[in-house]
Amino acid sequence: MNESNEVMAETGTGGGELDTAVTTPAVSPTRPLWRRIAWKKIGIFITSLFLFILAITLMKEGARDLGPLVKDRFAVSNPINSLGFGWLFAYIVMSGSPVAAAALAFFDAGIIDQMSTFTMITGSRLGASFIVLFIGFIYVLRGRNRSNSLGMGLLSLTVTGTTYIAALFVGIAMLQAGTFDHVQLHSGAALTSITDAVFDPIAAFFMTFLPRWSLFLVGLGIIMVSFNLFDKCLPEMALKESQVGRMSRLVYRPWVMFLLGASITMISMSVSLSLSILVPLSQRGFVRRENAIPYIMGANITTFIDTLLAAVLLNNPPAFTVVLVEMTSITIISILILALIYRRYERGMLALVNGIMSSNRNLALFMFTILIVPIILLFL
């Protein structure tokens, strides 16, 4: 959910050692049930959910007055512009999920159309994957091992980039054909009335001393806080070496790793948590880079669960369609790769990563390229 925490996981700064205990300390079975429940984590989860809904409400209100700024100052007027805008926006906020939510808010306010919303969300994922590489690059400058610091970050970026760019064309075709126009998940009148009754007065309170456009920025800040809180309410997941033996055979099966990455991310709603499991295993040599490729592909699909929730909260059926098309298109591309060309794709990704890491010149050129591309797209 929060890619800024994903950065810590990818570079090894936030993950525990491999032989660390898996979750919370053991408790006596004789203790009452109410004392064994992690009430603190439940409280953090409720707080994060409250802040998430509040942030969507504020961003929805504030986006209405940002039309001239987005269209004129940032020149976001077509799907290519919005792709670059979402890409750069993710660089600035160091996260992709808030940018995806912002895209839905802009669409709900009529600032960008459905196709531009789709490409802006795609751009947010491309930008978020770069953050992992950037932090790894900083670690290389500090004298850390190039392979450990950059390997998983580069692999995550290349897998995300290649699959999402291919899915971009599939998604555009699906939106133009109206494939999912009649598939909707409405928030329901009861839920809408409850959220309006709770959060509209809060938005009105903010507007008593803040201009309407600033509510978007306030909501953007709140949603980033909510993502951080959500990550904190999740259990810390680490693996003992004794557990590695039981799963060692599974990591060599691409479909198993693909489903594992998708399942863990869907349950946790956090890419940072799902990918952090791979980091200690990779650093100790239990999981090689090629084993992580299908896992990353699976995680990249279900990472949109929070964006799907945001679309439901907006009660905007076309916005829900955009997110559904995004998830479906990346699923189609991932399955085709796994079923038809996985070994060639694996060799290509590993060769690309090794080539980029082979020299500082190649690495600097690659980073400059992925920095300049979204800027160029923004002005096309």
Residue stretches low in confidence (pLDDT < 50, at least 5 long) are: 4-28, 237-245
Main beta sheet strand tally, sense and closure: none
Proportion of residues in extended strands: under 5%
Helix content: over 70%
Rounded to the nearest angstrom, the distance between the terminal CA atoms is 30 Å
Q: Count the strands?
A: 0
**Series of secondary-structure elements, N-terminal to C-terminal:** HHHHHHHHHHHHHHHHHHH
Structure description:
- The protein is mostly helical.
- It has one domain (3-16, 34-378).
- Helices cover 76% and strands 0% of the residues.
- Helix 6 packs antiparallel against helix 10 and helix 7 crosses helix 17 (317-340).
- The radius of gyration is 21 Å and the shape is globular.
- The model is unreliable at 4-28 and 237-245 (pLDDT under 50).
Task: Provide a brief overview of the structure.
With 380 residues, this protein is mostly helical. It has helices at residues 3-11, 33-36, 39-63, 67-73, 79-93, 97-108, 114-141, 146-177, 189-207, 214-233, 241-247, 254-268, 271-276, 278-283, 289-302, 305-314, 317-340, 342-357, 360-378.
Task: List descriptors.
380 residues; mainly alpha
List the helices and strands and how they pair.
Layout lengths: L2 H9 L21 H4 L2 H25 L3 H7 L5 H15 L3 H12 L5 H28 L4 H32 L11 H19 L6 H20 L7 H7 L6 H15 L2 H6 L1 H6 L5 H14 L2 H10 L2 H24 L1 H16 L2 H19 L2
Helix pairs in contact: 1-7, 3-6, 3-9, 3-10, 5-6, 5-7, 5-19, 6-7, 6-10, 6-16, 7-8, 7-17, 8-15, 8-17, 8-18, 12-15, 15-17, 16-17
